[in-house]
User: Fold Protein-methionine-sulfoxide reductase catalytic subunit MsrP from Roseovarius halotolerans.
Amino acid sequence: MAYRWKNDLSAPDATPEAVFMNRRQWMAGMAAGVALTGLSGRARAAGEDAGLEPNSWEDITTYNNYYEFGTGKDDPVKYADRLSIAPWEVQIDGLVDRPGAYAFKDIMARMTIEERIYRFRCVEAWSMVIPWNGFELADLLDMAGVQAGAKYVAFETVLDKDAMPGTRYPVLDWPYVEGLRLDEAMHPLTIMATGIYGRDIPKQNGAPLRLVVPWKYGFKSIKSVVRITLTDSEPPTSWNKANPREYGFYSNVNPEVDHPRWSQATERRVGGGIFSPRIETPMFNGYGEDVAGLYDGMDLTRFF
Ligand SMILES: Nc1nc2c(c(=O)[nH]1)N[C@H]1C(S)=C(S)[C@@H](COP(=O)(O)O)O[C@H]1N2
Ligand SMILES: [Mo]
Assistant:
């Protein structure tokens, strides 16, 4: 299957970046002609794309949005350590055959962890490239058994008021909630991330597992998920509830639909330095070839 390349980042004491570079050399070797079943030409090319040069561990783990810990980009790294993540359970319920509280460690034992190097585009018009480790959300949903009537998937973040100083303020209606249409959730690009650079995902990035939907604005990629509910109607989402004029349910990256207060045509790549030129934002964040078909016939200005 396309996109599926196995995670071989297992060397425990190498620095993440060093392990990662070895991996890239290995990928380059593959591109030079060694056959590997299942790795599509497109995925291979993407690994060598200059626009896919990953951000540093430092950038990815110190410049964060996680409003439960505060609205500053450095609040999550300051406070997220207060959150207890072990043991962790994910409640999977609604229109599924096997509802229940699934222990994170049992989920991990059953999922195939892969590496996905994805562009990540925040609605605030900054971006990064992040080498995630994780598994396809479709595999988790299959484990629970999606029933025929399910059309949407709702997600919820943990709410621990003692550990999360930001939740004392009604910036958003806590807990943070998000949602996807079922076909978006089942798409092979949609993952639950559990790692970055081969290490466990840090708390400020949404430990122990968070959604990543690379063709949508970053706020759809909900962190520290404790509940996944299969439903037959479009679930409420936090930013849409807070400001429906500015944040739609779909929130696909779209350079032609500006935010009411700023342009979405270009973005600032984090880590490039303040004088680095802005780069053009591609439709669907560059994943249109894979996902545009999900929206055939839809007016993406209306369903923004
Ligand atoms: N629970 C929760 N999830 C969240 C957020 C949040 O504030 N709370 N912020 C979102 C936004 S706006 C972005 S851009 C990404 C940021 O992910 P990162 O900090 O790992 O880069 O997380 C998203 N998921
Ligand atoms: Mo964001």
Q: What stands out?
A: The pocket of MTE (ligand 1) is lined by residues 64-68, 122, 157, 176, 205-206, 218-219, 221-223 (CB under 6 Å). Residues 16-31 form the longest helix (16 residues).
